[in-house]
Design goal:
Elements lengths: L10 H12 L10 H10 L5 H13 L5 H6 L2 H8 L5 H17 L2 H5 L4 H9 L6 H10 L10 H9 L9 H12 L3 H17 L29
Bound molecules: iron/sulfur cluster.
Length: about 230
């Protein structure tokens, strides 16, 4: 036997393996679509545990509401968002988002937009980038949009499925084309990738215990050396 790759992973096979290994992730952890949106704005460049503390600050003060956030003084809002990091910027981004959300008519009106139009509208908000917009589309509006983040790029590159440095929409559309439009699948798949990336496929990966190890070309001796 050569030391070549024993099995080439595919996107559906990776999903099946992660789902079997980790079980249902039940994302997004929030009580309402609006809370998903606030969390998506706050989670930029920070761990989710920090976002939870900022959300708890808003909840304790009855400010998890677009009208209430718009009415809140910037310095007060920034102080409550302090646990999520970059709190002055995030306070401004959250206010921008809430102004837009209210002007657009709120959830019921936005829900009526076709996915492409809703994505375009979200991307028009100052401070909302592709990943944040797609978090909101998938987890707040249940639209079949695959979220691309750094964990996704790293895993798919290490598995040899994509380069990992493709432009955001190029990679998103390629994955969506392969998997077909399925919001429930995308919801679970993204959550599983994040779980796997935190536990195994870290910057310094723990390949020895990884359930994708067989057939991963990034594992020394199994293929493309130097991917890690
Ligand atoms: S075997 Fe290593 S590099 Fe490959 S997916 Fe698992 S943790 Fe990542």
């Amino acid at each position: 036997m050569s030391g070549a790759v024993r099995q080439r992973w595919s996107l559906p096979a990776v999903y099946q393996a992660l789902q079997s290994g980790f079980g249902a992730q039940n994302w997004w952890p929030a009580d309402s679509p609006f809370e998903v949106m606030v969390g998506a704005v706050l989670t930029q460049n920070t761990a989710w545990s920090n976002v939870e503390r900022a959300l708890a600050n808003l909840r304790e003060r009855n400010r998890l509401d677009a009208q209430a956030i718009v009415r809140t003084r910037h310095d007060h809002l920034a102080n409550w968002l302090r646990p999520s990091g970059y709190f002055n910027i995030k306070a401004q981004r959250l206010k921008n988002f809430c102004h837009w959300y209210l002007a657009a008519g709120g959830y019921e009106t936005l829900q009526q937009l076709e996915t492409g139009a809703l994505r375009h509208a979200l991307l028009s908000v100052n401070g909302v980038g592709h990943e944040t917009a797609d978090d909101i589309l998938l987890y707040a509006f249940e639209r079949p949009v695959f979220v691309i983040d750094a964990y996704t790029r790293r895993l798919l590159a290490r598995l040899g499925l994509y380069r990992g440095d493709e432009p955001y929409d190029e990679l998103r559309l390629a994955i969506e084309h392969t998997l077909g439009p399925d919001a429930a699948l995308y919801n679970e798949y993204h959550a599983l990738i994040v779980r796997h990336a935190k536990e195994y496929c870290r910057v310094r990966p723990l390949c020895g215990a990884c359930l994708l190890r067989d057939g991963c070309p990034a594992v020394p001796g199994q293929g493309a050396a130097g991917r890690l």
